[in-house]
Amino acid sequence: MKKILVTGGAGFIGSNLCKRLLDEGNEVICLDNYFTGDKKNIIDLIGNPYFELIRHDVSFPYYVEVDEIYNLACPASPIHYQHDPISTVKTSVSGAINMLGLAKRINARILQASTSEVYGDPNVHPQKEDYWGNVNPVGPRSCYDEGKRCAETLFMDYHVQNKVDIKIIRIFNTYGPNMQPDDGRVVSNFIIQALKGKDITIHGDGKQTRSFQYIDDLIEGMIRMMKSENFSGPVNIGNPNEFTILELAEKIIELTETKSVIKFLPPQIDDPKQRCPDISLANEKLNGWKPKVQLDEGLKKTISYFEKRI
Ligand code: NAD
Ligand code: UDP
Ligand code: UDP
């Protein structure tokens, strides 16, 4: 049994990760300031004697003794990370410094939830880990993209300079149960709009692409990365099946059998035009890891989650 700290543990990915780690017989400390997370996501875990919930902001120091740290604390949806951009940078950068200082002091292995956003609006397609990205340092998305890029730098520097045992994963758009209904990201927005019979809001012409990964595939990849030896990453974890946002809207309309219609809104500033992971490195280094759940199956599970939730 390991003692594991999950920062951002009450969020979408964190809550799914906490559950899996407990199911595997570990002791889990879930740290969250509830900015975008919700106790409802972990309500079933409260009462488990091996689960502990801590209200704390990672941009302030935190002292604990654990074997492993998953650093997930950070708002991930554009509407939330742009609400208070300075706080978003502090969460990514000061949060990384504090969690790395903690990992260094207690000799714990630490995994950083980085993002495909480090590639910005990519002019290499699909994106491989050795692509350095195309990121605007002063736009509305910069607090998130540059904060995450700086966190990767800190992770690598603590590894090289202080021999901290680090792991960096670059997560591509992920969806599934425990996303908040008001999360604001495209999959949850479209499903909620469809279930409520409201207009499906597409920003721009809908020709921009994303590659959508179901949560269970991500959790499997994260755990394999944490267990891997002699490999720090960064490594892409995503589903390489790419869809336009218009195709996603049409699929959700079909699966929910809604009467909702598509409404086109002005495009968002600096919205990446395409995004698709090259996952050959993950496949090679993480025992043949590849996503198993494709979009139709994952959307059906997510739709049934939101039907119960709203
Ligand atoms: P989420 O918003 O559901 O979860 C983030 C959690 O972090 C929330 O519970 C929030 O309350 C908490 N948090 C935010 N700021 C904090 C702070 N200062 N101190 C403590 N807790 C704080 O988002 P998610 O989708 O679960 O994302 C989790 C992580 O994965 C994030 O780091 C995100 O950048 C990364 N990621 C997610 C995706 C995706 O598609 N879901 C893609 C790339 C990267
Ligand atoms: N830190 C923490 N928990 C710990 C150890 C350190 O939050 O258990 C914080 C500490 O407050 C510091 C940061 O991590 O601000 C970086 O620690 P490090 O030892 O690398 O740097 P230093 O303390 O020398 O600034
Ligand atoms: N998007 C959209 N309608 C929405 C929410 C998002 O058309 O209600 C688009 C958004 O402009 C972007 C894509 O869907 O092109 C993915 O957006 P999301 O916020 O989910 O993630 P990210 O842009 O960070 O990949």
UniProtKB/TrEMBL annotation:
Residues 5-302 form the NAD(P)-binding domain. Keywords: Cytoplasm, Decarboxylase, Golgi apparatus, Isomerase, Lyase, Membrane, NAD, Signal-anchor, Transmembrane, Transmembrane helix. GO terms for cellular component: cytoplasm. Signal peptide: none annotated. GO terms for molecular function: isomerase activity; NAD+ binding; UDP-glucuronate decarboxylase activity. One of its GO terms (biological process) is D-xylose metabolic process. Its cofactor is NAD(+). It holds the Pfam family GDP_Man_Dehyd. Pathway: Nucleotide-sugar biosynthesis; UDP-alpha-D-xylose biosynthesis; UDP-alpha-D-xylose from UDP-alpha-D-glucuronate: step 1/1. Its EC number is 4.1.1.35. It is found in: Cytoplasm; Golgi apparatus, Golgi stack membrane. PANTHER family: UDP-GLUCURONIC ACID DECARBOXYLASE 1 (PTHR43078:SF6), UDP-GLUCURONIC ACID DECARBOXYLASE-RELATED (PTHR43078). Belongs to the NAD(P)-dependent epimerase/dehydratase family. UDP-glucuronic acid decarboxylase subfamily. This is UDP-glucuronate decarboxylase. It comes from Methanobrevibacter curvatus.
